[in-house]
Amino acid sequence: MNILMATSEAVPFAKTGGMADVCGTLPVELARLGHHTTLILPAYRQVRAAGLPIEPTGVHFDVAIGSKTVSGSFLKSRLPEGDVPVYLVENDHYYNRGGLYQEDGEDYRDNCERYVFFCRAVLEAVRLLDLQVDVLHANDWQTGLVPAYLKLEYAAVPEYERIGSLLTIHNMAYQGVFWHWDMLLTGLDWKYFNWQQMEFFGNLNLLKTGLAFADRLNTVSPRYAEEIQTAPLGCGLEGVLQNRRGALSGIVNGVDYREWDPSIDKHLAEKFTPESVATGKAACKAALQRELGLPEEPRVPLVAFVGRLADQKGLDLLAATVNDWVKTHDVQWAILGTGDPQYEEQFAMLAQRFPNRVAARLEFSNALAHQFEAGADMFVMPSRYEPCGLNQLYSLKYGTVPIVRATGGLVDTITPVDDKTLADGTATGFAFGDYSAVALAKALQRACDAYVQPEVWSRIMATGMQQDWSWATSARKYVELYEATAARVRRGLVAGNA
Ligand code: ADP
């Protein structure tokens, strides 16, 4: 298969979130399976600073943005691994800026225009760079117009008529909503500005546009694919997703085990394998306790959280539980994250008041993230919603038992401890359903009860460490999805009849 993956970010070129990991890693795995992927993304300032070789192609193009004609050109690079070509859409006015989407917490006011330009450039790239494409793979709202342009403007052009489109939803909460006059920038007829296609409560919605026009839709876990078909997780687009449920599926993201494997992890005080986890984790735990200024107590459970300090992550539940437990339970807490000042303040305060029980590092540190995963006994993710989640997958590999809210990808990747799963050796973590501090505390208590039974605990750890959540499995599922997308186009089906 030949895939053109259009994305607004991909590692190692530009990253603000998990989508960049998917788009930078999946093409390499697809290449291993014999499929050819080409990546295309904007030539942001970050991309140029990434230090990878970039050369001009000499190919320039003009596209219509509203009543203007805007010019750009294509630069060429490659992913560091595999044989994956990367085209960068150059237009300094749009992309040579301090951030990808915003600066100082303020979205760029011309974001709609910047991504209209990018989507038009993607379609032009197929023709001008003579790319052979079976499936155009769009990602999130920034590329929501790609399936629409393909269907409405290019479908009858010979080079395009056999191309299918897939849109991956990485997070329903970000939709690219702009005021209705930005419809003029898209160049599409106002007749598409209706409640089933591009309009959303009087505004233009670019994610909705993609959901309406793509041949196939997927998201980053099967459970999240279900959840977004109803409120509140559909974020207002549940109706559109229900209409298209026949075209919607879920594929869990993979882990990059070259980066996240305790047996080769250069950030750890001591590397360990499933065989040496007892001594290795003890050394990493002691090192982490020293690093964080917590008492070096080997038998006191150490519970970690790493992530964005955002409402999505369930930090109100966590803060309430830590606040209760510091007075009643012999447990240590380690928090690593940045984000909402309200949570930063709460955890900083807890750490200050209870320095022997709580440590809060309010920074972004990859090395510390690895050390938290390796040194902790338990990893807590009380997420309100979680499209896929990566930290629970890292935790499994590091023998750190996840305690998760049963939502999204956390349901698809963690097998909760109960009598049956303990007996048949499939249990990997603890889960709770209700979004409440009481439910979280109960799950934590069950984990602490298991922790003091070394046989039970080491069995749960061992089961987790044996799991394989590598990209190889997920990439095979993407190949099946690409094949289904292309077959759908060959059969001449139209998106509206999903
Ligand atoms: P999301 O994409 O919703 O932020 P994921 O669990 O899918 O959540 O991925 C988050 C990634 O970002 C993980 O690799 C995690 O280790 C990393 N991360 C988040 N916050 C920090 C931080 N403060 N320091 C280091 N790594 C972090």
Structure, briefly:
With 498 residues, this protein is of the alpha/beta class.
Write the layout of secondary structure elements.
Blueprint: E1 2-6, H1 18-32, E2 36-42, H2 45-49, E3 55-65, E4 68-78, E5 85-90, H3 92-95, E6 102-103, E7 106-107, H4 111-128, E8 135-139, H5 145-154, E9 164-169, E10 177-178, H6 183-186, E11 199-200, E12 203-205, H7 206-213, E13 216-219, H8 222-227, H9 238-243, E14 248-250, H10 277-292, E15 302-306, H11 315-328, E16 332-336, H12 341-353, E17 358-361, H13 366-375, E18 378-381, H14 391-397, E19 401-405, H15 409-413, H16 419-423, E20 430-432, H17 437-451, H18 454-466, H19 471-490
Parallel strand pairs: 1-2, 1-8, 2-5, 8-9, 9-13, 13-14, 15-16, 15-18, 16-17, 18-19, 19-20
Antiparallel strand pairs: 3-4, 4-5, 6-7, 10-12, 11-12
Bound molecules: adenosine-5'-diphosphate.
Residues 17-18, 306-308, 336-338, 364-366, 369, 388-391 line the site of adenosine-5'-diphosphate (ADP).
Number of strands: 20
Q: Give a list of the ligands.
A: adenosine-5'-diphosphate
Helix content: 25-40%
Broad CATH class of the largest domain: Alpha Beta
Taking all Cα atoms into account, the compactness measure Rg is 24 Å
Description:
- Helix content is 39%, strand content 19%.
- With 498 residues, the chain is of the alpha/beta class.
- Strand 16, helix 12 and strand 17 form a beta-alpha-beta unit.
- The protein is elongated.
- The structure holds adenosine-5'-diphosphate.
